[in-house]
Write a structure and sequence with these properties.
alpha/beta; 6-stranded mixed β-sheet; about 230 residues
């Protein structure tokens, strides 16, 4: 996934979830934050950030904050990026099989999943849910960074798909590289970690990959060890 019109800046402050003040070439700009999570460990006053300049002259904010340099580690924090990067990966790498066609944002019953993969040769169907991960502590990456009842709901709904004869998978996309392993953030939301364990017991594939991140791109990288 590629961005365009990238500028480097300095993060100043974040008065609410949606906007941040950044210094760009000596000018203070109000920027849209493309991640409504807490991100407290990322957005620290004075840190280096990367922003995409909008080509829409009618926008209230001219820039989107998409990445941050945390102690020499470049972290993409755009919450829309994981699905876009994974879509490219699914189409290019065919990790679930050459015959699997990809359909984004598909509904099953009352549930809506990020992807449905269907075989063009058999009746095989696989529902895939993607979770972007930006929380890192001493090389260990954790999800979620805040309680997520929605995340628990998605995991439980995937189990229902499996019980109805389909396949289910959860992919944690770590929006950085060079990490040690992934583990659920039990301290923040134990219920999500327990839901992942139950899903694995029911036959769901739990996957985790890191990302190759540059100031103007993010791409699915290598598998990351999972410790549930």
């Amino acid at each position: 996934m590629k961005y365009k019109n990238i500028r480097k800046g300095i993060f100043l402050s974040r008065p609410n979830r949606f906007i941040a003040y950044c210094d760009i070439d000596g000018e203070e700009e109000i920027c849209h934050v493309k991640n409504t999570g807490r991100c407290r460990e990322l957005l620290i006053s004075g840190c280096e950030v990367y922003l995409e300049k909008s080509d829409n002259p009618d926008r209230k904010t001219r820039y989107d904050l998409i990445a941050v340099n945390k102690g020499g580690i470049l972290i993409n924090m755009d919450s829309q990026a994981p699905n876009k990067a994974v879509l490219e990966w699914l189409n290019e790498q065919k990790p679930f099989g050459e015959d699997m066609e990809v359909f984004p944002e598909q509904t099953y019953g009352k549930s809506r999943f990020d992807f449905l993969l269907k075989s063009n040769k058999t009746d095989r169907k696989l529902y895939l849910e993607v979770k972007g991960c930006t929380l890192e502590k001493d090389g260990v990456v954790l999800f979620p960074d805040a309680p997520t009842e929605r995340g628990v709901k998605h995991v439980n709904e995937l189990v229902a798909c499996i019980e109805n004869g389909m396949e289910g998978a959860i992919l944690i996309l770590v929006q950085m590289s060079g990490v040690k392993y992934f583990t659920p953030n039990y301290e923040t939301h134990r219920e999500f970690g327990e839901a992942l364990k139950r899903a694995k017991e029911k036959g769901a594939a739990i996957l985790c990959y890191d990302s190759t991140v540059t100031p103007d791109s993010i791409k699915v990288g290598k598998p990351v060890e999972i410790r549930l």
